[in-house]
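Thought: the user wants the 3D structure for the chain below. I'll pass the sequence to the structure tool as-is, report back what it returns, then summarize two notable features.
Action: structure_tool
Action Input:
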Amino acid sequence: MKTKETVLLAIGTNLGDRLQNLRDVLKKLRSCCHIKRTSHVIETEAILPENAPDGWNIPYLNMVIEADTTRTPLELLSMIKTIETKLGRNTSASRWSPRIIDIDILLYGDLKMETDLLTIPHNELKNRDFLQFLMEGIGYNVPEDIKLGTNNYTALNHFVLYPKFVGILNVTPDSFSDGGKYFDPEKAEAHARKLCADGASVIDVGAQSTRPGYVEVSPSEEILRLSMMLERCNDIKCISIDTYFDAVVKHVLTKPNVKWINDQNSTFSPDTIKLIADRDIKLVVMMHGMQPLWFEDRIKYLRNLGIKKHNIIVDPGIGFEKSRYENIFIIKNLKTYIQQGYEILLGASRKSFISLHANVGVQDRDIESISAACLVEDAGVDYLRVHNVKDHMRFFVTRHCIRNA
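Observation:
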């Protein structure tokens, strides 16, 4: 029986969808080790040699994981190199150039070794104060002979990998939550980029208001509003379109970065559903009212039309045809109320049920929104649809650090 050793790995990325790159690495690493603890994620400036090309100056996301493995150091290194290649790392690129993923063995038990292939402890660990900070953050003592003891690192941002955040962008003149602040295409683009910088994995764009008493606009007007935004944000990796018009779906699916359709009313035609299935993109299914049996039938209907199970995201529909107390009931009982086996999205941000216990305006409900999000994290919620990504992220970073210390 092979001996189990505790290893510390560092993961970095500064190309592509950086948060998703880290999630992908954690999934792959489970083939060669048992992950015990993970740090949160910090963003740092790239470390570069003198006269490096300007294009290399791309900030990194970094994290540290503690794991058990029965692999020898060189076996583990070999598997790590295979994972890097599978995830798209260019093995022939220059050492300091940007990379989609970088995995380093920092420590392997108490082992010290130095070979042409591998040095343990990692020979750069003594120069990386941010790595030592992340190690200490998960309760791992940095060896005294390499400990810097300064903690003078500078982090540009702090993130968690889970839950994933869906940032809300309303390109309407009459949204209930932001009063049309992003109806102008230039302001919409700026806000979309801010949501991404704050840690949103998906940007959910709505061009049709759903506030009480709203006046519906035509599909052509909705398409016009969306087109102006999508043209400006064609480099944002994952966009969700919040709509209930077949014509809108058919138009936006011509855009390669539209990866989700957020189905508001469950009124799409069978042809539209089949088109979504053919494009292999995700479909958010919302429950109106308190009808879990109808909800289950709706999912069966979608599956029969070709939507794959992994592409269905269920949304309990907080605020849609439910009393304020029914909204709270669903949030509290989400784990048993929603059909299991599907990804779950919760959209409680700034919803009116909050006014039961907070006499504040719509735009001042973020503290209460974070409190609701906190309650459902342990219920297996995969995505939180929120207006204020930055403050939600701050909360979950702190919670993660305390739990994993």
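Final Answer: Structure generated. The CA atoms of residues 351 and 357 lie 12 Å apart. The domain at 162-404 is CATH 3.20.20.20 (TIM Barrel).
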